[in-house]
Amino acid sequence: MIVGVGIDVCDVERFGQTLQRRPGLVRRLFTPAEAERPVASLAARFAAKEALAKALGAPQGMSWQDAEIVTDERGRPRFEVRGTVAAQVAVAGITSIHVSLSHDAGIASAVVVCEG
């Protein structure tokens, strides 16, 4: 059963400019492994984290570091959740999180579907 759906978009150039103006934001939003990726990929990962928050009902107190996008050997993205995000996932009864990322024409986007 679908428990929540979230979608988000992010302007890649504007996101990159924000990261340049506020370099500490990278450490706050992304894990060390995520932070090494190019700006379009970071924008898509930020959109995914926003989409996940929306799918969870936008609860307060979640750390962006606790929701990491990793890719499997075929390049398919998935969330690894821990800490504050894992707690919200458990409260919502979510057993599976699906995520799709895209970036094209200067826009990064993500869709998240949570099942329980």
Summarize the structure.
This protein has 116 residues and is an alpha+beta fold. The chain has a single domain, classed as Ribosomal Protein L22, Chain A (Alpha-Beta Complex).
Taken in chain order, the helices and strands follow as: EHHHHEEHEE
In the residues, how many domains can be counted? 1
Number of helices: 5
- Main sheet makeup: 3 strands, antiparallel
> Could you say what the CATH architecture is?
Alpha-Beta Complex
Give the amount of beta strand, in percent: 25-35%
Name of the top-level CATH class = Alpha Beta
Q: Give the CATH topology.
A: Ribosomal Protein L22, Chain A
**Could you tell me the mean pLDDT?**
96
Catalytic activity: apo-[ACP] + CoA = holo-[ACP] + adenosine 3',5'-bisphosphate + H(+)
GO biological process, one term: fatty acid biosynthetic process
Protein name: Holo-[acyl-carrier-protein] synthase
Subcellular location: Cytoplasm
Key structural traits:
two-stranded antiparallel sheet; 5 strands; about 35% strand; globular; fatty acid biosynthesis; lipid biosynthesis; cytoplasm; 4-PPantetheinyl_Trfase_dom; 4-PPantetheinyl_Trfase_dom_sf
